[in-house]
Design brief:
Length: about 80
Amino acid sequence: MGGRRIRRGQMNGDIELEIDAGSGVRNYAVRVIRAAAGGEPVGALELDVEELLSRREVLEATVLASLLDSLRLIMQPGGVK
């Protein structure tokens, strides 16, 4: 969100990841493409996709709820330049 202003005392939590197939079933290689903290760390992730999909509604609600703070910043006068 290139044009969004971050006010003093607030932290930009935006992060961009690249996720590729890993060494086996449920294993993924993860690389940070862009993060406020800088750097490009690489790591491995074990993810049970079936379990995640079984809780899809909760995941969707959590992601949507996390957008509320961003929307509040955008909706404030002068929030986006």
